[in-house]
Amino acid sequence: MEAARLLEAMGGEVKIFDPRGLPLPDSEPETHPKVVELRELANWSEGMVWCSPERHGAMTGIMKAQIDWIPLTQGAIRPSQGKTLAVMEVSGGSQSFNAVNQMRILGRWMRMLTIPNQSSVAKAYQEFDDAGRMKPSPYYERVVDVMEELFKFTLLTRDISPYLTDRYSERREEAAELSKRMNQAKL
Question: 72 and 110 in contact (C-beta within 8 Å)?
């Protein structure tokens, strides 16, 4: 929520996915309402913030389930490709970077433009007030830095994302499919 407030203050439009009720991957059809909602938000977004608690030294299962429900392709649409990504985690104990490192790997796998900066909030139970707002601290300042970087990278890559994610292998495959369909030896 703190990231959303910051992005809105910077001029961004923010929508948040609530994973409550999201089924495990492949346990329900893709038409499940929570899956449809998640995929619509992924298609809508220009950038994403992935934030997970670190539990047992890793991102949570529900975070991974959300990522697993976002397909690499939906017909001709690639819901994640070329979009910016910021990764953050909260920990109940000492500072760690296991969850952000795992999410960073997944973001690259999904061909997202994962920004260099990241945030890891240690002893999160001490960092928020009774209203759920982050207290002023170096951790909060880091979250501001990460959101500012995400916002800037999103603006910088907005119009050139298709160019940055254009790949020879995909163009070659598309040309071969077109040639086969048109019954041409060469394009």
Answer: yes
Torsion of CA 170, 171, 174, 178, to 10 degrees: -170
Distance between CA atoms of residues 41 and 9, nearest Å: 20
> Percent of the chain beyond pLDDT 90?
76
Cα 133 from chain centre: 22
All residue ranges of the chain with pLDDT < 50 are: 187
Tell me whether residue 154 is in a domain: yes
Helix locations, 10-115, DSSP H:
33-44, 61-69, 98-109
Number of domains in the chain: 1
Domain of 106, in residue numbers = 2-182
DSSP 79: S
Distance CA 187, CA 58 (A): 48
CATH number of the domain at 138, please: 3.40.50.360
Average pLDDT for the chain: 90
Exposure letters 95-108 (e unless 16+ CB within 10 A, then b)? eeebbbbbbbebbe
Instruction: Give domain status of residue 109, yes or no.
Output: yes
The pair of structure tokens assigned to 82 is 């070329």
